[in-house]
Amino acid sequence: MVERVAVVGAGRMGSGAARRLASRGYRVVVWNRTREKAERLAREAGVEAAGSLAEAIAGVEAALAFVSDDDALLSVVSQLRRSDGLVFVNSATTTPRASIAAARYLEGLGIQYVEAPVIGGPGALERGEAIVLAAAPRSALAPVLPLLSELGELVKVGDSYGTAAALKLAFNNLLLTTLVGLGESLLILDAYGVDKALFSSILERTVFSGLAGKYFERAVSKPKPTFTVSLAEKDARYAFQALADRGYPRLVSHAVSNVYATLSQMGFGGEDYVGVYRLLKKAGAGGREEH
Amino acid sequence: MVERVAVVGAGRMGSGAARRLASRGYRVVVWNRTREKAERLAREAGVEAAGSLAEAIAGVEAALAFVSDDDALLSVVSQLRRSDGLVFVNSATTTPRASIAAARYLEGLGIQYVEAPVIGGPGALERGEAIVLAAAPRSALAPVLPLLSELGELVKVGDSYGTAAALKLAFNNLLLTTLVGLGESLLILDAYGVDKALFSSILERTVFSGLAGKYFERAVSKPKPTFTVSLAEKDARYAFQALADRGYPRLVSHAVSNVYATLSQMGFGGEDYVGVYRLLKKAGAGGREEH
Amino acid sequence: MVERVAVVGAGRMGSGAARRLASRGYRVVVWNRTREKAERLAREAGVEAAGSLAEAIAGVEAALAFVSDDDALLSVVSQLRRSDGLVFVNSATTTPRASIAAARYLEGLGIQYVEAPVIGGPGALERGEAIVLAAAPRSALAPVLPLLSELGELVKVGDSYGTAAALKLAFNNLLLTTLVGLGESLLILDAYGVDKALFSSILERTVFSGLAGKYFERAVSKPKPTFTVSLAEKDARYAFQALADRGYPRLVSHAVSNVYATLSQMGFGGEDYVGVYRLLKKAGAGGREEH
Amino acid sequence: MVERVAVVGAGRMGSGAARRLASRGYRVVVWNRTREKAERLAREAGVEAAGSLAEAIAGVEAALAFVSDDDALLSVVSQLRRSDGLVFVNSATTTPRASIAAARYLEGLGIQYVEAPVIGGPGALERGEAIVLAAAPRSALAPVLPLLSELGELVKVGDSYGTAAALKLAFNNLLLTTLVGLGESLLILDAYGVDKALFSSILERTVFSGLAGKYFERAVSKPKPTFTVSLAEKDARYAFQALADRGYPRLVSHAVSNVYATLSQMGFGGEDYVGVYRLLKKAGAGGREEH
Ligand SMILES: NC(=O)C1=CN([C@@H]2O[C@H](COP(=O)(O)OP(=O)(O)OC[C@H]3O[C@@H](n4cnc5c(N)ncnc54)[C@H](OP(=O)(O)O)[C@@H]3O)[C@@H](O)[C@H]2O)C=CC1
Ligand SMILES: NC(=O)C1=CN([C@@H]2O[C@H](COP(=O)(O)OP(=O)(O)OC[C@H]3O[C@@H](n4cnc5c(N)ncnc54)[C@H](OP(=O)(O)O)[C@@H]3O)[C@@H](O)[C@H]2O)C=CC1
Ligand SMILES: NC(=O)C1=CN([C@@H]2O[C@H](COP(=O)(O)OP(=O)(O)OC[C@H]3O[C@@H](n4cnc5c(N)ncnc54)[C@H](OP(=O)(O)O)[C@@H]3O)[C@@H](O)[C@H]2O)C=CC1
């Protein structure tokens, strides 16, 4: 069983996972492309920082990657060298296609691959309350089962790579579409001078009560981002691409992705993704003042 | 106080309201553009059917309209004649603009106007469990308060016409966007062979539990429609227009409306609106066979 | 035959038409909602300015309206009083629906109606080189044929109201879609550091040579607007609505309209509509600076 | 200088190129994934068919690939083995990203790479009237200059890989957007019963005269496809991806791509891409009959 683990990527999610695993008794070594972030995390969380990826994975049984996107995944994977017995877990939200490509590549290096995207943010990870969606053959998954279960509830989606990635994109597509829809609905309220709190209280009495409770306040205020506009743009785009890759039509993912792309282009890529409505109003105002 | 009420429109919603009000002791007279429907309802619900709109509103204190859309509302309203003291309640989902136009027109005829769109379907109406959103000056609303409260919980949105219509569109925009997002997410699952029941069970653990409970089964099966693809197309388009009328940008309503428009064009306008996913698959298959 | 004509709306198009008609020997009286504009035009073009719409149409055989949109048309039309024998020509770009509504309303006032939208900008109008698309019964069109022919080539589209408006929207939909496509293509060039002049020289050798000649320079520079972002947003939206009104799906008009709506929201509503690319880049920069 | 050339891909474009080059005195060997197609072309055009890719490129100085898309390009490239001195020309429409990846990969095999997408269809290729857009360092391009010039006018876009691919996508984005706009405009005409020939005659007098001349007839009839709905879907999607890859927003490519994706899903992927309007009407009818 795994006792030593490398966390690849010391961003929001990687940090949450590193803290959790350290607190549960794992020996954690962190590697991050930009070294300072790994070192800061190491100091704060009492874990080790590795100077290189090779160093990070030397002597661990598993690596757990929380990097941004397909490119980051493929870039990390292509830096790995033969390492028999290692299990590489990809917990980033990527396209099924990229995940399958990573699996094929690692096969050639004797590295086992687990596709394990996560539902839940950095806080949920740190509290061990995330949902971990896993796709992998049994032999690859078995050694990391206890490890992944520390992060939250483990759901085995399938043996075939791509299935967990698809399920994660299906979930995020639903969430992001819903939140952009919420943003547009708030614009309607504004356009006609309707009280937003009244809307929220009505949502409370419908199937949207959970959503309103969790996101309404965050949609109209300016919270510290746990998930950014840039990542939301990417995820909606990946939903689009996942469908395109299999010759399926797209329904709204393109529009959702475009909303986030426009916000990114205006300089809001690093802001909290729930604030679509607030950012759009700011953009409008900003543009008008600037003009 | 109102004791006699004309229900204008004997469609799904009008029928639900007529049954409810009759069961609560109101004297209900129903008028419908296509006469047969009114007569059938009259027989079934033990209410009266009027041969003309004029006949229907003669001798009632209030008229409650559940017609399709802006055009239907304006067409009905323009057939009314001077009728001092009557309160005309519009419970259709219309644009704020059409509702305001109706109010202005009725003012000239001495008829009071209440904008009162409804959240909840025909079943909820009939059980008195809908949410009735009302916008009107106090003097117009007061006489119909008890009547409207029979249909469910009454929420006063504002004194100004347009506000309740806007809130209703904001709600439907959120719901329709979410359901189209759900449809697209189901396509992703299909494209990668992921079990839909697993997805549903994951939604149960998130803010989407209410949504999954109410709509998941309906999204994949073939239920009797309570709300149709055509009406969904209209509502998403009205959200779009409500924003356009005030010079606001649109985020996803155009894409949502377009999905429903494409389904309508393929002949699915009368089907249940939750079945986006199922209808799209059928369309794909149909087109392919036909080709 | 018409010798005296009222021009309704002293905007860009109304001004071009007034100058042209005055130079061709018509007695022109101008009315504009905002009076100053009418008076300025009267001074510059040597025509008369009327203090009210009633005054403008008293004593003329025809009125020629170049107002912004459906609302402006219906507002102007609803201010008219009985005026037997007058021909009212609507040269604004409106929906078929609004044009048909105007025709019906004017019928009740004994006023004949000609739907006559125009292809070509203010300059073309002033030089008599526009294309005037006309829909009206022969009896209404006959008296204004010479007048309209002064503005350019007259094309009779049909006897039924709505057909010329539809043809105009079909044309503008094609033009606006093409120009937004051009804007997006320029973004692609920018994103990969490709010379825009090279692209233009390639377009010269294709079916786009006419387009490149007329619009390329204007797309990348900052010209005085002859047609604005706001009007473009409106026209693409009207194409969308014209299709929706007949239950047809939309293909790209929603996306085109949304691009212009977003630019309007950012404060660019009054800028030249060809500059999509330039404005988007400015918006990006603006947002980023402001942030 | 090149005298012997391998044409990779015996589809529409590859066939056109093979015929042209054979007729100009080159020794052409054709390879195609599905062997029969290569053999048929060999018989018809009097060229050689190779049994394997390795066989095809053994003994030629240059290979010219006309395969479908990014995946096909990367699949072909990854089957190549060390082959010093060979110049591999990619004439497919691919994303800049895939082209750059191909270049990097071939570098490791001692193969020179030229990115050379083409404007113009199979007929133009066969007559030597295409426009060949080239991006490559001078040393790679020089040996194939005479060869590529046989296909039409050669335009050097830049030294950097990606630039010609971007220019090609910019062109196709403009063309496809315009043609979908044309399709939507034809729907508007239909919806209001306007004569399509009249519309065409008006386009003749505008910047769209070239477009109308080349595509109008094809848009309303049922021609043998020279370029398919599937490839159009791909190209619009690649325009979208090219922008996304550099963090740029998308304006209409998503909508254009979606129109073609929906048509593909309905079974029209192999039809002529200009017939958007005709296919949509057929889909509508088909769906309705089937329902
Ligand atoms: N935040 C959330 O709530 C959730 C996020 N996710 C997913 O988890 C993943 C990580 O998200 P999050 O932690 O929020 O993102 P952050 O932006 O906080 O962190 C991104 C990490 O990826 C690294 N990275 C980016 N590009 C490369 C590259 N080319 N090579 C190596 N490393 C690279 C970054 O390194 P550097 O510091 O050098 O830039 C950084 O460590 C994403 O796929 C996201 O979609 C999933 C569920 C929830
Ligand atoms: N510009 C162009 O190149 C072309 C324009 N068109 C169409 O012609 C029409 C006019 O365009 P253009 O001249 O450029 O627009 P402008 O914005 O320059 O002028 C608009 C005119 O409409 C008037 N107006 C707006 N709202 C109302 C109202 N509610 N009641 C009365 N008058 C009103 C304005 O009056 P006020 O001054 O008081 O605001 C002004 O006179 C539009 O429909 C446009 O789409 C068609 C072809 C080409
Ligand atoms: N047609 C046109 O007018 C124009 C086309 N283009 C571009 O040129 C390219 C070719 O288009 P066109 O000839 O029309 O397309 P076709 O569909 O006629 O031919 C496609 C070719 O690609 C081959 N192919 C597909 N996938 C693979 C793969 N994975 N490995 C190896 N070969 C593969 C096919 O082989 P098989 O027979 O085995 O399926 C076939 O030879 C495309 O990129 C297109 O966008 C550019 C300008 C104009």
Automatic annotation (TrEMBL), chains A, B, C, D:
Domain 6-phosphogluconate dehydrogenase NADP-binding per the UniProt entry, residue ranges: 5-155
KW Transferase (keyword) present: no
UniProt keyword list: NAD, Oxidoreductase
Molecular-function annotations in GO: NAD binding; NADP binding; oxidoreductase activity
Residue stretches making up the 3-hydroxyisobutyrate dehydrogenase-like NAD-binding domain: 162-280
PANTHER family: CYTOKINE-LIKE NUCLEAR FACTOR N-PAC, OXIDOREDUCTASE GLYR1-RELATED
Name recorded for this polypeptide: Dehydrogenase
The organism's taxonomic lineage, starting at the top: Archaea, Thermoproteota, Thermoprotei, Desulfurococcales, Desulfurococcaceae
